């Protein structure tokens, strides 16, 4: 294109660079992430339920040289579920997630990995229910609903990352599940967002591109695309 259509190539490159600069800017990325995460803010008092449901995507398999299962940057949801259990908010924890990483040579599902973490920090195995077939959020909801119906469970606390919660709660409610959102793993806090323009220098420096902002922008954009696609498929 540079040789055959230099003007078109120049416009395309310019648009690509502009999009890259905007999406790696903390203001743009922060606003997009906030628009998702702040839809469901933590409740002043978490109500009791009959089960805590934790969605997968929070672990890294026990592949060498790791000494065991690790938590990734979304691992807060596993720890938060343990905290809710210890606060006696529900008597059981349902872990939902299969193994979607085809590069892993370990057959353990995400639910098994989360169970390994929970039992290692003192959650009794008898309080853990594993659902290891789900490969996406829609399947999480469908498969968890079957478990709830078989056990006569009517009300759950749904635990996932704050950015993932808007899509998740819509899917679970579409399945007729009485799900109370219990989000965690917030990327944007009140103080951090207010501090973006706390001084002229801060406002100027926050205009600079950063790879972390690009990652946050990509994650938020993925959620909006997911919501759009799920609506097209009738899952929401």
Characterization of this structure:
This protein has 236 residues and is of the alpha/beta class. The protein has a domain at 51-181: HUPs (Rossmann fold, 3-Layer(aba) Sandwich). Helices cover 47% and strands 11% of the residues. The protein has 9 helices and 7 strands. The chain has helices at 6-23, 26-37, 76-86, 110-120, 137-151, 165-174, 190-194, 200-205, 211-232, and strands at 51-55, 59-60, 70-71, 93-96, 128-131, 155-159, 178-181. The strands form 2 sheets. Strands 5-4-1-6-7 form a 5-stranded parallel beta sheet, with helices on both faces. α2 crosses α9 (211-232) and α5 (137-151) packs across α6. The model has no long low-confidence stretch (mean pLDDT 92). This is DUF218 domain-containing protein. InterPro entries: Cell_Envelope_Assoc, DUF218, Rossmann-like_a/b/a_fold. Residues 50-226 form the DUF218 domain.
What is the C-level CATH assignment of the domain at 51-181?
A: Alpha Beta
- What is the residue-mean pLDDT, rounded to a whole number? 92
- What is the CATH superfamily label of the domain at 51-181? HUPs
Gross geometry = globular
Spatial arrangement of strands, main beta sheet: 5-4-1-6-7
> Which class best fits the helix and strand makeup?
alpha/beta
**Which percent range describes the beta-strand content?**
5-15%
Give a quick account of the main beta sheet: strands, pairing sense, barrel closure: 5 strands, parallel
Ranges where pLDDT stays below 50 over 5 or more residues in a row are none
CATH architecture of the domain at 51-181: 3-Layer(aba) Sandwich
Can you count the helices?
9
Question: What is the N-to-C succession of helices and strands?
Answer: HHEEEHEHEHEHEHHH
* Alpha-carbon distance between the two ends: 42 Å
- CATH fold category name of the domain at 51-181: Rossmann fold
Helical fraction: 40-55%
What's the total number of strands?
7
What is Rg?
A: 20 Å
Protein name: DUF218 domain-containing protein
Pfam families: DUF218
